[in-house]
Structure formats: C-alpha cells, structure tokens
TrEMBL record:
<dbReference type="Pfam" id="PF13560">
    <property type="entry name" value="HTH_31"/>
</dbReference>
<dbReference type="InterPro" id="IPR010982">
    <property type="entry name" value="Lambda_DNA-bd_dom_sf"/>
</dbReference>
<dbReference type="InterPro" id="IPR041413">
    <property type="entry name" value="MLTR_LBD"/>
</dbReference>
<protein>
    <submittedName>
        <fullName>Helix-turn-helix transcriptional regulator</fullName>
    </submittedName>
</protein>
<dbReference type="Pfam" id="PF17765">
    <property type="entry name" value="MLTR_LBD"/>
</dbReference>
<dbReference type="InterPro" id="IPR001387">
    <property type="entry name" value="Cro/C1-type_HTH"/>
</dbReference>
<feature type="domain" description="HTH cro/C1-type">
    <location>
        <begin position="34"/>
        <end position="84"/>
    </location>
</feature>
Length: 290
C-alpha cells in the first residue's frame, strides 16, 4: 500500500513527538545506550497496546489509524490540546485530493475599508501560509512597509527569517518565529500537497538552518491570541496583545489586530505612532501633489 501526504505528515509528527519523551518519564527503563533520542517505536507500541508492526506501518504512512489507536497515542505521547487536534486532522478519514485553495487569497473591498477605518489600531490580514494580503497604515507602521515587498515574497514567516529588522523588532524573535512555524503546520494540516507552501518551506530551509531545524520539529499551535514585546524604532517599547479574527467570508483569512490596555505607556505609544503615521502620510501626499 502506498503512502499519501496526510499519512506521511502524520508519521513525521509521531516521530517528532516520541523523540521528545524520556523513557523514565513514562515508566520505562533506559535499556542501555540509545541511538536516537526519546522512545523507540516498539516502546510506543507497547504503551499504546498495539503491535510494533502496526505502529511501524503507521509511521510509514501505510495505514489509517482507528479512533481508539489515536486516543491511545494521545495518551502515550502526552499530546496537548493543539497537538491532539492536529493529530486528528492529519488522520481524518477521507481520501486525499489536491487542495482547491486559491494561489493567493484575495481581500474583498469591505475588509480593506474596515482595516482603514481602524486609525489607531495596527492590523493586517494573513493567510494560512502567512501570506500578508491586506493591512492598514498602522499595521505597516508597526511591522514594516508591506507595499514595498513584492507580492510573491510577502509572507510573514519569510520576513521573520530573512529581514534583519524583524530580529530587532521582536525582543523574543526566536519565540515569535517558532510560534509562527507551529501555526503554519496547524493551519495547513488539510493541505499536505500545497505546492506554494512546499516551495516557501524549501526556500527558507535552504537559507536558514534554524528554520530547517524548527520546521522538522513538527510542533503545532493554533493562531488565536497572545502577547508580544516589540522594540519599535520610532516609539520604543510596546507590550501588545494580539488577536486573530477569522474573516467569515473566507475562513482561510485571519485579521491580526494589535491592542494595548488604556492608560498604559504602550497605549500612549500607539497614539504617538498613529500621529507619526498620519504626519508621514501627509508629507508624502504634499510632495506628490505639490
């Protein structure tokens, strides 16, 4: 039986998770020197009450796991909620078909108008591959001038890896980047044959050894909400909360909105950034029309 992309991803995910587990932590003896980190295949099989041959074929992408086996693997590999959801997504019982996703999501005019009306709030729209498809003036002022980046290169993860300014902007650049990679995996679980994603991953894997290592770790996370500390070149330190809101007209798109608690220095700095953005825009306009 040949493997399919869903099951290949599932096998790699299982390998990555068992490599993270210490035998002693699951009640197993070390059993002498180990050639690889973590649990052996036969140990996972014993703990999950399945045959070693079954588990080997599962990692090789040759079989479809049953719900009971998935439940056992969640328990044995100590998966968290995001990892559990990802495992079940990869193991979904349907035949693989090439994804019908558009080459690049398109933004409807009303979405852009909504972004533009958020004069004091940074926001941008991101696709599952982290393609940046829309933004407002504050979003560009906070992160970078997206308009200057060719559309085919306008990926958030690509900026994080290739733009030195992003490493300066995020005080925890590594954490931000690793989270973005985990979110890409999670939000593309249903598109294992996505040629554009494969090309992006291939490009960044060649350019950056850290990306290559972090992508191979098969970590996953939902893009939902969080906090980040930025060191902005114009207004200084910003401690911002971010929320990802799914656009109902196209569930592939999420609006990332950055906010700060009123009365905090960050809230004041956002107002300062909005003023600076408006002044810059007016200067450019006057030079263009003068």
């Amino acid at each position: 039986m040949t493997s399919d992309p869903h099951r290949n991803d599932l096998g790699e995910f299982l390998k990555a998770r068992r490599a993270e587990l210490d035998p002693a932590s699951v009640g197993l003896p070390e059993g002498g020197p180990r050639r690889v980190k973590g649990l052996r295949r036969e140990e996972v099989a014993v703990l999950a009450a399945i045959s070693t041959d079954y588990y080997v074929r599962l990692e090789q992408g040759r079989i479809q796991p049953s719900p009971s086996v998935l439940d056992s693997l969640v328990r044995v590999l100590r998966l968290d909620e995001d990892q559990r959801a990802y495992l079940y997504e990869l193991a979904a019982k349907h035949d693989y078909r090439p994804p019908r996703r558009q080459p690049r999501p398109k933004v409807q005019p009303q979405l852009q108008r909504m972004l533009d009306d958020m004069a004091h709030t940074p926001a941008f729209v991101i696709g599952p591959r982290t393609e940046i498809v829309a933004w407002n003036a504050m979003g560009a002022a906070l992160i970078t001038d997206f308009a200057k980046i060719p559309e085919k290169q306008r990926y958030y993860i690509r900026l994080l890896i290739t733009d030195p300014a992003m490493r300066e902007l995020y005080t925890d650049w590594e954490g931000v980047t690793r989270l973005a990679i985990a979110q890409i995996r999670m939000h593309n679980a249903n598109s294992p044959g996505d040629a554009k994603l494969a090309a992006l991953v291939g490009e960044l894997s060649i350019q950056d050894a850290q990306f290559r290592q972090w992508w191979a770790a098969h970590n996953v996370a939902v893009r939902d909400t969080g906090s980040k500390h930025l060191r902005h070149p114009v207004v200084g330190d910003l401690h911002l909360d971010w929320n990802a809101v799914t656009w109902a007209a196209d569930p592939d798109l999420q609006i990332i909105v950055w906010t700060a608690e009123p009365g905090t220095p960050t809230h004041d700095n956002l107002r300062l950034l909005a003023s600076w953005t408006a002044d810059t825009s007016n200067t450019v306009t006057s030079k263009t029309t003068g």
